[in-house]
């Protein structure tokens, strides 16, 4: 699976980029016993008609979803996600390793 998160609205050219990623995944990384890769593009906003035309002739399965930014994480999700401190610590550890 290829997942791409975009900060703005969906653009048709994202389809071509995702097709490229999926071709590479299927030819270079996927094993014979795995199903073909699927792409998901997550954008801040999308126009359904633009998405439909952009995906109409795509050679790989691609889905487009939108998200909304909230000022606070809903309580129901807090138990499933790490705290900001844990994320900061993890990123710091990765940067330390990369700096070596």
What is this entry, summarized?
By secondary structure, the chain is of the alpha/beta class.
- What share of the residues lie within helices? 40-55%
> Oligomer, anyone?
single chain
The DSSP helix count reads 4
Overall form: extended
Q: Note poorly predicted spans.
A: none
Number of domains: 1
Instruction: Describe the strand arrangement of the main beta sheet, using strand numbers.
Output: 1-2-3
Distance between the termini: 31 Å
How large a portion of the residues is in β-strands, by DSSP E? 5-15%
> From the alpha-carbon coordinates, what is the Rg to the nearest angstrom?
17 Å
**pLDDT averaged over residues:** 93
How many strand elements? Answer: 3
Q: Tell me about the biggest sheet?
A: 3 strands, parallel
Query: Could you give the order of the helices and strands?
Result: EHEHEHH
Structural class: alpha/beta
Structure commentary:
The two termini are 31 Å apart. Helix content is 45%, strand content 14%. Strands 1-2-3 form a 3-stranded parallel sheet, with helices on one face. The protein has helices at residues 13-29, 48-55, 75-78, 84-99; strands spanning 2-5, 39-43, 62-66. The chain has 4 helices and 3 strands. The radius of gyration is 17 Å and the shape is extended. By secondary structure, it is α/β, with parallel strands linked by helices. The chain has one domain.
List its traits:
extended, alpha/beta, 4 helices, 3 strands, three-stranded parallel β-sheet, 100 residues, single chain
How is this fold's topology laid out?
Blueprint: E1 2-5, H1 13-29, E2 39-43, H2 48-55, E3 62-66, H3 75-78, H4 84-99
Parallel strand pairs: 1-2, 2-3
């Amino acid at each position: 699976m290829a997942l791409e998160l975009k900060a703005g609205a969906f653009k048709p050219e994202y389809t071509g980029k995702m097709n490229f990623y999926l071709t590479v995944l299927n030819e270079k990384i996927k094993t014979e016993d795995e199903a073909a890769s699927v792409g998901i593009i997550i954008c801040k906003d999308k126009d359904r008609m633009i998405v439909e035309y952009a995906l109409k002739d795509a050679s790989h399965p691609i889905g487009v979803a939108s998200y909304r930014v909230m000022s606070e994480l809903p309580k129901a999700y807090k138990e499933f996600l790490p705290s900001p401190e844990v994320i900061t610590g993890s990123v710091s550890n990765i940067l330390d390793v990369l700096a070596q």
